[in-house]
Amino acid sequence: MLASAAGTCGVEGCTEAAERFGCSVRPECIDGRNYHRNAATEPEQPAEVNVSNWADLSNGTRIKHLRGSDLTQQGLADAAGVSLALVQKAEQDRGELSVGSLLKLAHALKTDVAVILGQQAPRRGMSRGTRAALRRLSDAVHDSALGGWDGIAEPSTLAELSAAHDQVYSAYWQGDYGKLSELLARVLLEGTARYGQATGHERERLGAVLASAYQFASSAAILLGQRDLALSALTSARRLAEDSGDAVLGALIESTLSWIHLRSAKVPRAIAVAERAALRIEPSFSKAPRPQLFGYGRLMISAAVAASRQGDAVSADDYLSQAHAAAARLGHDEALYGTHFGPTAANTEAVGIAVALGNYGRALKLASRTELPRSMPKLARNRYKLDVALAQCETKLYDRAADTLIEVGLDAPEWVRHQALPGVIGKRLAKVSTARVRNISELIGVPLIT
């Protein structure tokens, strides 16, 4: 047991020893005796970290957890090409790390900067199956971009690849990462091979199918905390969308880019990307084609969500009103290239925006008027419910918040492991009843508090 605070182990002298030896040599109390270990050169067993609370931890705690018990501070410094002092200061949260240092540490820890900064949960919070799915996804994205398909027969036809793409859509929105990665590997590798042979209309259609598939790969990667992979996939998606000449597809891909920037805490950039893309397809509401209304509305949602994250209620409301107008013009929910938009999306996103702005009463009022259709995708439905649960917590409706959290955890157990919000809700609930939160954690199989 590490004596990191007075009274931790109950053995006299433990804390004083820590202070006497300084921060890099730490006492351990074993059988009533103090032993001293140099954290710089000797591996340590890190304290258990609750991955669902990842966003609430300090950068130093996150780095230490990612380093783990099999890598010393000196080992991390050597792998990253930085000084031991920098690693020690980073783990102790002494000063801000430069972008260059963050990139070096992230590379050495085999993760993304977004994970260190708390925007994404680490891969160690994944099940073995999800880690395997992520490896397949990464191989498919990179191998297809390099023309890596080596099948012994002709690649699948456009009709076959389109059918497989429809299954990709279903697997993504169900949160089935294993099936998703297998399908994407087929569509991306075989589709790229077929694309190289195709001409005319077939090539345009294949380009759209591939662009959408890369977009799904990008979205899955960012959900699993792999920002670099997400951007790599989206780069291929943008190129193919441009080649296809489909302006709406290009706009929806920009919406995904905006979301990646938002998840990476680059809020101004997220807003700018959505605004620029929206200007390129801004419709005349009286006579705009439906796909154009769809794309514009989705981009306005992206801008509104990003504005709410930086507390800009005026801009968020302005963007949201534009999204509502586009949704009203459509008249009902639609799906295009695997993206959903319509009245339901506008209404549920309005709840999340109200929560982000701290207007919890308004969020619950909006939620009371929002009906979720049976056709609403599982992940979209559960993300909305997490927003509702947080609003319920903040308005002291603790029992209802607990019930909502249980619903989400049981409906999407693997997905919820990679979300920070369940941990935030768990901490709020624990202030009322720690035992209740531990029971919820056991029920849904996700640690909510340490």
Question: Can you walk through the features of this model?
Answer:
- The protein has 450 residues and is mainly alpha-helical.
- Strand 1 (25-30) and strand 2 (33-38) form a beta hairpin.
- Residues 1-37 have low confidence and may be disordered.
- The protein is 65% helix and 4% strand.
- Helix 15 runs antiparallel to helix 16, helix 18 packs antiparallel against helix 19 (398-411) and helix 19 runs antiparallel to helix 21.
- The chain is globular, with a radius of gyration of 24 Å.
- It is built from 22 helices and four strands.
- The protein has helices at 14-21, 59-67, 73-80, 84-91, 99-108, 113-116, 128-145, 158-174, 177-197, 200-223, 227-244, 247-263, 267-281, 290-309, 313-330, 343-356, 360-368, 378-394, 398-411, 413-416, 421-430, 434-444; strands at 25-30, 33-38, 334-336, 339-341.
- The longest helix has 24 residues, at 200-223.
- Strands 1-2 form a two-stranded antiparallel ribbon. A two-stranded antiparallel sheet has the order 3-4.
Through-space gap between termini: 16 Å
How many alpha or pi helices?
Answer: 22
- What structural class do the secondary elements suggest? mainly alpha
Approximate helicity band: 55-70%
Beta-strand proportion: under 5%
Q: State the low-pLDDT regions, or none.
A: 1-37
Number of strands: 4
- Order of adjacent strands in the largest pleated sheet: 1-2
Overall form: globular
What's the pLDDT, averaged over the residues? 84
Query: What profile does the largest beta sheet have?
Result: 2 strands, antiparallel
H-E order: HEEHHHHHHHHHHHHHHEEHHHHHHH
How much is the radius of gyration in Å?
A: 24 Å
